Amino acid sequence: MLNASSISAYELGLWIYAAATLATFGMLSFISAPYGRHTRNRFGPMVNATYAWCAMEAPALIVMPYVLLSSAQRIPPASLWLMFLWCAHYFNRALVYPWPRHSEKRMIPVLIPMSASIFNIINGYTNGHGLAISGYHYGASSVHDFRFATGVVIFFLGAGINIHSDAVLLRLRKERGTGYHLPTDGLHRMVAAPNYLGEILLWFGWAIAAWTTAGFLFAAYTMANLAPRARDHLKWYLARFPEYPTARKALIPFVW
User: Fold this and answer.
1) Which residues contact 35 (CB under 8 A, 6 or more apart)?
2) Residue 210: which H helix or E strand, with range?
3) Helix axis angle, 194-210 relative to 111-138, nearest 10°?
4) Taking 70 as the threshold, does the pLDDT of residue 143 lie above it?
């Protein structure tokens, strides 16, 4: 049941979200987030990256559907579909994606999963509540709405790019051993971080389909977080592999 206090908490969450987006972009414009290939141990205690990845993605998988299902008296069909897409993505990120890499026994600063867990709690709350408020104020959203249909198409396009690009990297490690190798398949031929391009696309698609403030803030945050990291990936590839094409872009083919 929606009430004044829950709406106020939602609005506070949106302001926190907007501030986090600006802060994240500003910080990552100058430093590389210390995980994955950019891991550095000077950021505090280290923990197993596989377990950390599961722990930091799981809150979004749990909180968002809980908030939506407990906040709305009647959930429009479109909101249920958006919840399903959200849960499918985070099920993959929390419970499927990390495990093929478990044998590599990578470490990550504990600061990363701690901060990401807090973010995903806020993320799940604001987006779950955003869908609930949308349905409460405007009635049942139609799955035939042009915005919904367009957004879902973009979501699946982005998800396909994201999953395929991650699979290319994983296959390289299985074929050539643990560590990082030069990928040449799919959109890796055009940009340094096609998996990030896919993730940005899928969340902008989700935001268009949801048409909520929280959805667009999440899409903006995703870009603020991943665009600087794509730039850092390009620099890393150029420094590590002399044969890496200098004309290849960081994130957007032929553009940037």
Assistant:
1) 49, 108, 109, 112
2) helix 194-210
3) 30
4) yes
pLDDT tens per residue across span 48-105:
988 999 999 999 999 999 999 997 677 888 899 999 999 999 999 999 998 886 656 7
What is the rounded CA–CA span in Å between residue 178 and residue 172? 9
**What are the boundaries of each domain within the chain?**
4-240
Kindly tell me if the per-residue pLDDT of 139 is higher than 50. Answer: no
As a residue count, the chain comes to: 256
d(CA 56, CA 76): 29
The arithmetic mean of pLDDT across residues 186-208, rounded, is 97
Reduced to 3 DSSP states, what percent helix, strand and coil does the chain have, rounded to the nearest 5? Answer: 75, 5, 25
User: 205-228: string of b/e by CB count within 10 Å (b at 16+)?
Assistant: bbbbbbbbbbbbbbbbbbbbbbbb
- Whether the pTM exceeds 0.90: the reply is yes
Q: What is residue 46's three-state secondary structure?
A: strand
